[in-house]
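The passage that follows is intended for readers who have already worked through the single-chain material. We present the inputs for a multi-component assembly, then the predicted structure in tokenized form, and finally a short commentary. You are encouraged to pause after the input and sketch how you expect the pieces to fit together before reading on.
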Amino acid sequence: MQFTGRNGMGSTASVETKEQILDVAERMIAERGFAGTTLRNVVSQAGVNLAAVHYHFGSKEELFRATVARLARPVVEQELAALRQLQQEQTSPSVEAILTAFLEPPLKLLLGAEEQSRMVRAQFMGRCRTEPEPIQSIAAQEFDASLQAFLEALQQALPDQSRPQLQWKFDLAIAILVRVQMEAGQPNAVIQGSQPEDIQQAVSQLVTFMAAGMRS
Amino acid sequence: MQFTGRNGMGSTASVETKEQILDVAERMIAERGFAGTTLRNVVSQAGVNLAAVHYHFGSKEELFRATVARLARPVVEQELAALRQLQQEQTSPSVEAILTAFLEPPLKLLLGAEEQSRMVRAQFMGRCRTEPEPIQSIAAQEFDASLQAFLEALQQALPDQSRPQLQWKFDLAIAILVRVQMEAGQPNAVIQGSQPEDIQQAVSQLVTFMAAGMRS
DNA sequence: GTCTATAATTCGATAGAC
DNA sequence: GTCTATCGAATTATAGAC
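Having made your guess, compare it with the prediction:
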């Protein structure tokens, strides 16, 4: 094994550097937004060199792209898997079941982790939908496959609604999810704890709220 | 009358300068957010001098405070007036009536004005709730009186729901409003036109969506 | 891969003439 | 009240040694 670089380590250290940058960027963008986050703040907190960001990611915007991709891919994967399983079990899943499959993966981001950093990933995901362009569009690409699949499933569950009507109702449901993600950890948040039962209860309440609106 | 300054005008020009700065700041913050908006971009578009911003407002943050205050005060005033009138006409207004009084003033911002600048104020108002701190808190102060009054009214209309429960449901209703404001003018927006009947129809649909969720 | 050093801009804010 | 000129600090990004 080659030993080079900052601490005399090889490519393992490279991976660590890359992930440390991603970790800090995720947290800072969640809190301050993309424009409010500087690379100097990121590398300072991450304990790495400023040039390392450009070496590993190329630019600030590409760093964001990598950050959102790392978060989005497993979430989208879990959402699509849950939807597939649902469609195999039932020929025509209910709106509630579909929305549950959509909400659980992102809200389970709130599970487990430590004290403060628990809700960072949820806040970051919420931030993706509230950022000015072109950041919002970059993030949207990563979640697009999931959105399309769930919109199609909802259309089958609600065949009486026109496509545009369903589309903006689904959009409002996503807005609700985003709000829940952004306020995670705050005093009046929907999700108060980080235990599995807290999440399940919150998902259940949100599904009820959304489904009522979508049928109306 | 004294004639001084840029175009040999007096205090009238001062007022014009101040409002031109506010107009452009409103539009740019709506599009790019606070951190993404530079004073140099603002003064360039407004056709005024950079120093004028600091002379009239003191700092970038104070400019934002003035911008949100100019927009929020009439909106809050109209909301509170509509609520008062509603409470005088009926002893116990419905959830739908309360939500209508809450939605109409901000959504009527979309009425009338010209081609592009029509949805700027709505987008700015939506942006206020999606900005990172401390901007979001500064904006929240301006809308706080309205929020408290409507929360109290909703509590009377839904006495069976606990305060925390009602609070986060109202919070989700606001998230829906914010999303509608942010997407104003986009292809899949809830509000497609800028005619009074378009707004009324959108308000009606949103109230139905929100009320269904709040009762659930 | 990691580092120092720095280029090349841009930022918010201010001093002082008019 | 408006202007020019500028300060001091911050920004992203890069070149080049190791």
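Commentary: Residues 60-89 of chain A form the longest helix (30 residues). Chain A is about 70% helix and 0% strand. How closely did your sketch match?
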